Amino acid sequence: MRLKAVPILRVMDVPTTKEFYGDFLGCQVDWEHYYEEGAPVYMQMSRNEFVVQLSENNRYREGSIIFVGVEGIEELHGELSQKHNLRQPPTISLTPWNTKQMEIFDPFGNLLRFNESVS
What we know:
Oligomer: single chain
Number of helices: 2
Order of helices and strands: EHEEEEHEEE
Radius of gyration: 15 Å
Shape: globular
Helix content: 10-25%
Largest sheet: 4 strands, mixed
């Protein structure tokens, strides 16, 4: 048996979503769907094995937390620190459970918690 979870996050507008997840985090748009004209967007963006679905539908709540396992957190930190549209400077901290962790809020109040095990 193999399971895979894909979180669905609430977003408020498509241009800001694409700027943050695309331009800042380096994700690509996998698909974008509107159930009818004028309906909220439902889309998927990804980068490597990081996959997230994003919806403007108000049945979803903002303020979710996603735990993202990463290999190469220092490299990701360096990449994000060089971005011109940096909203907040990411920092890496060492957790009491012996991982490196970097937290970044998206523009809609969702927290992305990047985590790498320390050997």
